[in-house]
Amino acid sequence: MRLYNTLSGTEEEFIPSGERVKMYVCGITPYASSHVGHALSAVVFDVLRRYLEFQGYKLQHVQNFTDVDDKIIARAAKQGVTYRELADRYIQEYTSDMDLLNVKRAHAYPLATDAIPRMVEVIADLIDKGYAYPSNGNVYFRVTMDDDYGKLSHRSLDSMIAGARVEVVEGKEHPMDFTLWKAAKPGEPAWESPWGPGRPGWHIECSTIALDHLGESLDIHGGGLDLVFPHHENEIAQSESYTGRIPFARFWVHNGLLNLGEDKMSKSLGNLVGVSEALEHHSSDALRLYFLSSHYRSPLNYSAEGLAAMERAAERLRNALRQDSTTGNDALDPSHYEKQFVTAMDADLNTPQAIAALFDLAHEINRARERGQKVGQAQNSLRKLGDVLGLTFRERTSQEALSLEPLAELFKDIGATLNASGHHKLAGWVNSHSDAQDAATIVETLLAIRRELRQVREYDFADTIRSRLADLGVGLEDAQDGTVWKHRQSVV
RNA sequence: GGCGACGUAGCCAAGUGGUUAAGGCGGGGGUCUGCAAAACCCCUAUUCGGCGGUUCGAUUCCGCCCGUCGCCUCCA
Fold first, then answer.
1. Separation of alpha carbons A434 and A425, rounded Å
2. Across the strands, what pairs with A476?
3. Distance A85 CA to B1 C1' (A)
4. In chain B, which nucleotides are within 7 Å of a protein Cβ?
5. Is there a contact between A76 and A32 (Cβ–Cβ < 8 Å)?
6. pLDDT band at A22 (very low <50, low <70, confident <90, very high)
7. What's the pLDDT score for residue A417?
8. Fewer CB atoms inside 10 A, N or C side of chain A?
């Protein structure tokens, strides 16, 4: 496949260097709930992984957690918990959010704090080699020693300084020198080192963890576009200076960032939408379709309206997966659509086009079914290709989507109306389920009642039940072989 | 100030130097249905921010302009 490489600034043919594709993706700093921007990034690399696996590659996917840093420490102190407790809490939350998004788990989630002794070794070696120097309990990387510093972000040291936002820090030889080891202030969690107690800088963590888990050369290093500089630039500087092996990562892959309204969604602006918040209102399929309906390198604006539209689009795909006909003779051949899908994904993960192939296939399935063809094979194909994008084609269950109280109230109400209008038999059905504790039982009973009403042509009453269920988010479809109901996304 | 991205229908969003500019949502009409819903059929950009240039031919390449956004500081 062709894959855009930030390092070269072009698309290149992706061929792994060995048996397994070694993919390292920068993880989160667990000091707060993860937001939909994190979800976007996770989904992008999940799809890259799924597609490579679909193509028959074996992968080793590693993603770190930066479980100690200034913000974690500050926040933990504020809440009166240890940094450990705070980090663990948000790591757990992140993991469960990603599970709900159907993101495949990485093969390893190393913690920064577990790798500190190794980082100390690496830093010491960098000092020995002249790439770093201690200063007042800190250790800095000497950027002037690295001839190709700036090659990833495509800027020169001079132009960085011309940016004029570099602040002069006491003890640094060069304003762009960055921290490898940070001396601890009193009361902060600290680890021993030859330079005094402290903790590692952010960048050295990823270099060291990647090195330890995946070796000196990665196939793919991923992350958000906002990490290109300084984080990934510095990782390259550290890793290549330490190992002498170039390149540290063969492909640098960066996803575009998610904006909220006019602004980038960022912690500093505080305009965050949490992953769990988004999942309360939208299915994971809708979220994934939304993320993947624009190219992964483009910026994307988060919008609830856009997601609601994707919810309907997801339903369209699901509808194509309904029961196959059993009587058909010839079968629909999905291979044309599979080719389209693969061609699209091969072109730097062109998921918008891949999704279009999915919709074309779904459309063709519906047409073929009307023609009386067998569509089972094509449906399997749709499921299989959808799975490459991490789509589940599952509706949210009634428990997740429907609240019981308004339904129970409606149920009672209908029972009373039935009684009042002389439908004592049907009112009895309500009574016999009057203590129903789940939404499904209530809906099913109402559907049975409605069927009876339709049979005796009391359409007004039947339609009332339908519309009142619709008000509660239950959509009805009367098909040949009975009525199907589903939760419909309420308009946000 | 430096580096970079983008501007395609009502909305979201692919794409190509030259046959009909994907797909989704929305909208209109029709088939089916007791009515709906779903599904199917038809329609919904003579046109790709503006102005020049290159070319037989540009939405696609180049230049300028206008507009939007990102990075350069913690950030997926």
1. 14
2. A485
3. 44
4. 1-6, 11-15, 22-26, 33-41, 68-76
5. no
6. very high
7. 95
8. C
Measured from the Cβ of residue A39, the count of other Cβ atoms closer than 10 Å reads 29
Q: Supply the DSSP string of A197-246, one letter for each residue.
A: SEEE-HHHHHHHHHHHHH-S-EEEEEEEGGGIIIIIHHHHHHHHHHH--S
d(CA A44, CA A79): 33
Angle (CA) A159-A200-A250 rounded to 5° is 55
Calpha distance A26→A115 (Å, rounded): 15
Which residues have CB under 8 Å from A78's CB, separation 6+? none
Of all residues in chain A, the percent with pLDDT exceeding 70 is: 94
Above 70 in pLDDT, residue A225?
Answer: yes
User: Is any atom of nucleic acid chain B found less than 7 Å from the CB of residue A453?
Assistant: no
Structure tokens given for A386: 């959808």
Q: For chain A, how far is it from start to end, CA to CA, in angstroms?
A: 39
pLDDT at A490: 46
Measure, in angstroms, how far nucleotide B22 C1' is from residue A358 CA: 12
pLDDT digit string, tens, across residues A91-139: 999 999 999 999 999 999 999 999 999 999 999 999 999 999 999 999 9
User: Is A265 near strand B, with its CB below 7 A from some atom of it?
Assistant: yes
Average pLDDT of the segment spanning A53-60:
97
Instruction: Give the type of residue at A8.
Output: S
Average pLDDT of A459-482?
90
Which stretch of DSSP H or E encloses residue A10?
strand A10-13
Which residues 338-397 of A interface with strand B at a CB distance below 7 A?
Answer: 347, 350, 352-353, 355-356, 359-360, 362-363, 366-367, 369-370
Is residue A288 scored above 50 in pLDDT?
yes
pLDDT of residue A167: 66
Q: What is the DSSP string of A139-183?
A: EEE-GGG-TTTTTTTT--HHHHHHT--PPP-TT-SSTT-EEEEEE
Q: Which of residues 136-165 of A touch strand B (CB under 7 A)?
A: 153-155, 159-160, 162-165
Number of CB atoms found within 10 A of residue A262's CB: 7
Peptide linkage before A197 cis (omega within 30 of 0): no
Range with the largest mean pLDDT of A86-95, A428-437, A476-485: A86-95
A136-146 pLDDT, tens digit per residue, is 999 999 999 99
Average pLDDT, integer, range A49-77: 96
Question: Using an 8 Å Cβ cutoff, are A327 and A306 in contact?
Answer: no
Q: Which of residues 112-131 of A touch strand B (CB under 7 A)?
A: none
Strand, coil or helix: what is A358?
Answer: helix
A34 CA to B29 C1' in angstroms comes to 46
